[in-house]
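Sample 1 of the test manifest.
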Amino acid sequence: MDTLKSDVTICGRPIDDYIKQVVDFHGSFAPGMLLGGFMVEHARRNLSPEILFDSICETSHCLPDAVQLLTPCSIGNGWLKIIDVGRFAIALYDKHSGNGVRVHLDHRRLESWGEIKSWFLRLKPKHEQSRERLMDEMLRAGVSVLGIARISIQKEFLEHRHGAPIALCPACGEAYPSEHGARCRACLGALPYKV
Amino acid sequence: MDTLKSDVTICGRPIDDYIKQVVDFHGSFAPGMLLGGFMVEHARRNLSPEILFDSICETSHCLPDAVQLLTPCSIGNGWLKIIDVGRFAIALYDKHSGNGVRVHLDHRRLESWGEIKSWFLRLKPKHEQSRERLMDEMLRAGVSVLGIARISIQKEFLEHRHGAPIALCPACGEAYPSEHGARCRACLGALPYKV
């Protein structure tokens, strides 16, 4: 990453710190993690700094890790949810009002950025892509390739159901949320393995 | 956490280091993160140390964060998947053969551990639970409350589809995986917001 400009920051931290954190957590500094960093930064700058926000990722690729590293939201604490519609987009929103912003990578803004476009739309096989040029373009493009829109989350989605009663599944004998029905979803075939 | 024994380790690291990491990432040292730490440790000890493993969490509560902090698996790198059947269980398995282990909290092993049982089966309201007693019981119980079983992941689940073609959705104009169909899932109503 010789081309990295040392003055670039992601959410206020020097990019080298972010890269180190990404390598520790994600395993490698993937292009989607660099772009994801800019996406989280762009979303946060367009939210009031004092609000408590929840988040949604529209893909499971890379973006959930950028959100988890750069915000208080994680999968396990429930502040990040993934709704995998396969779009490269994140939403951050006030956890009480549901008002917030959605940021996505906009393919219509990629005409001057050939490597990003090829990578995003999978226009050429991976071995023909240049990682160095891709990262360099991403760094130079920054937030200019991102679309942003105000959103408002549906009220029903905001309602948290804490403490739903627990049942014991008559099939496997394990504990599960009773609201799932008469048997747990595992015993209805939801898992790719049997115990 | 006065009752914490300083000699307890989680996946080879001193528990205080794990607690710090959890607070940074998850926001607080929740009971599920302590138990989740023991679960990951128990699973890893029962896998050959040299294998490359993927993972599944059977709930989105806490366990995904324990897996992400204590293994190379994350949501964004694709090595962790959540299949939310609402059971407090994790599976770690060889990413090539699909052979591995599943660890779950076994309610049948909780007869001597009243606070863990109350917490897990939601037998009393949260304000009547004692967090200190709960954590103390978890520390003393360790892996003795966990069930473990060998599993084998279905072959179809192991097959990765890299580089599926990208389409532009005729409704929203955004890029999405063409295998999802003629429109992206967001335009079919999968999200709790509209742009």
